[in-house]
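Query structure, 503 tokens:
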């Protein structure tokens, strides 16, 4: 039984989809047992038919007996079978072992029923990797692999290649392997979906023969309008544009446990690119490697982001590993190896209170932390930063810089001596009532101090002075420091000092 609920919505306003706002199709357990892409009365169920059944657009009673044998009514086994008080529909796979690639002839129906689960893990390879792959039919441009317009949807255990030619994309028509949310059209209002999970997928690659460059996917996951979206344990690679990109709304976005590499060769170059309202986004424990731009790039966002415990490697020579715009971001405990700079923070639009703490850097041609001036808004500055700043006393206004131009700490000596007890007393000055973080350093090609290993922290007093005793330093090693204040953020690195033994 199906109940169609008519909605009267203002075409210019976004709404959050709830279970009461989508077609109430009967919850079903459906097994896809054919890699064909059609809807017709025969002996098998296709993915297109399965989505149409979950949406309520294909009547169960009109199926053949053989087709009905692949479908059962959903029952409640555990809490995961519910979404907002309603039983979920499950789509599973049992394809012949030599017919696991589904070549899409025309765009698949959007997923429009809350709580739907598309589960490719029901049929994995012997290596427990995705066996079911989706790709456009030969010479057929398909903008989106799966388009999610409902809340509570899970897509897992599939591989996608060749969706979303970025040359055809417009802002109103996002493209990619998986697209989340609804933009305003003549036929539908803008809608925000929530509680979507994208897990254990391969996006941009598959176990089947690779497609040529002309059929690479445009983007991996495109969140146009979403809340509480979780993207975890996926491999996102070989996208023409970014592996993950946001559009208008992506609040409470959680990106964790993914491998995001070799994306952006032909378009938006960054591994992860965040725009729009991205408040309370968390990017954690990802491996982000060898993308054509920055590992993570924030462009004029609204809201704050936490970037923690990621491994970011081999960014492009002229790009930062992490590029920030905006206020209140936190970058901590990341391991960053970059040909260019580590973390660049733009001053325009105004960027404040960005905390860069306990990271390990291996940069070759740029600062570990670079606070850019508002005067530097050229293309190169959005990629490479503007280098070390002078003390803010040399400028008309320290607010012309990212993080309010907070000055780097100053050590009281260019060298510190190891005492008879093997410890070293470090003294310096910085902003009063702020946190000093000391690092063991190396030097890059230009002689800049690279913050290679966090050592310890100490708080400055009301006069801005600090003192700390360290027992882990050896002769000839060098140290540097940053200062962080809740009203400003984190500074660039100080000039380094060398550790000496007693002669």
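Result returned for the query:
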């Amino acid at each position: 039984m199906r109940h169609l609920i008519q909605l009267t919505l203002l075409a210019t306003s976004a709404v959050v989809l709830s279970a009461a706002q989508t077609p109430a199709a009967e919850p079903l357990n459906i097994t896809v047992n054919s890699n064909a892409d059609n809807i017709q009365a025969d002996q098998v169920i296709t993915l297109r038919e399965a989505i149409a059944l979950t949406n309520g657009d294909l009547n169960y009673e009109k199926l053949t007996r053989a087709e009905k044998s692949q479908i059962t009514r959903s029952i409640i086994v555990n809490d995961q079978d519910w979404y907002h008080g309603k039983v979920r529909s499950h789509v599973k796979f049992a394809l012949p072992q030599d017919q696991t690639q589904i070549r899409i002839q025309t765009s698949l129906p959007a997923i429009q029923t809350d709580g739907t689960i598309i589960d490719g893990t029901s049929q994995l390879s012997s290596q427990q990797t995705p066996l079911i792959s989706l790709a456009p039919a030969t010479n057929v441009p398909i903008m989106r692999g799966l388009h999610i317009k409902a809340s509570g949807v899970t897509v897992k255990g599939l591989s996608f290649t060749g969706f979303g030619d970025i040359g055809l994309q417009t802002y109103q028509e996002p493209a990619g392997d998986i697209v989340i949310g609804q933009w305003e059209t003549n036929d539908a209002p803008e809608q925000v979906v929530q509680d979507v999970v994208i897990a254990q997928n391969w996006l941009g690659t598959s176990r089947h023969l690779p497609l040529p460059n002309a059929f690479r996917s445009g983007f991996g996951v495109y969140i146009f309008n979403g809340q509480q979206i979780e993207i975890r344990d996926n491999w996102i690679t070989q996208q023409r544009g970014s592996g993950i990109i946001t559009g208008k709304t992506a609040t409470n976005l959680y990106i964790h446990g993914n491998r995001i590499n070799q994306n952006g060769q032909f378009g938006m170059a960054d591994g992860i690119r965040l725009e729009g309202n991205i408040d309370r986004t968390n990017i954690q424990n990802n491996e982000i490697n060898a993308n054509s731009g920055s590992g993570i790039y924030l462009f004029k966002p609204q809201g704050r982001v936490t970037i923690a415990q990621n491994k970011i490697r081999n960014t492009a020579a002229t790009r930062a590993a992490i590029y920030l715009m905006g206020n209140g971001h936190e970058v901590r405990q990341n391991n960053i190896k970059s040909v260019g700079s580590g973390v660049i923070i733009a001053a325009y639009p105004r960027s404040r209170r960005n905390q860069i703490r306990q990271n390990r850097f291996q940069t070759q041609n740029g600062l570990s932390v670079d606070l850019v001036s508002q005067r530097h808004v050229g293309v190169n500055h959005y990629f490479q930063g503007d280098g070390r700043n002078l003390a803010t006393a040399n400028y008309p206004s320290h607010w012309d810089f990212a993080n309010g131009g907070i000055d780097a700490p100053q050590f009281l000596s260019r060298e510190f001596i190891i005492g008879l007890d093997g410890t070293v007393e470090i003294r310096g000055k910085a902003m009063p009532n702020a946190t000093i973080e000391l690092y063991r350093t190396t030097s890059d090609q230009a002689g800049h101090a690279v913050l290679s290993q966090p050592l310890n922290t100490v708080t400055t007093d009301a006069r801005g002075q600090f003192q700390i005793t360290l027992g882990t330093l050896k002769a000839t090693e060098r140290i540097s420091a940053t200062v962080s204040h809740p009203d400003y953020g984190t500074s660039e690195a100080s000039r380094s000092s060398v550790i000496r033994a007693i002669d």
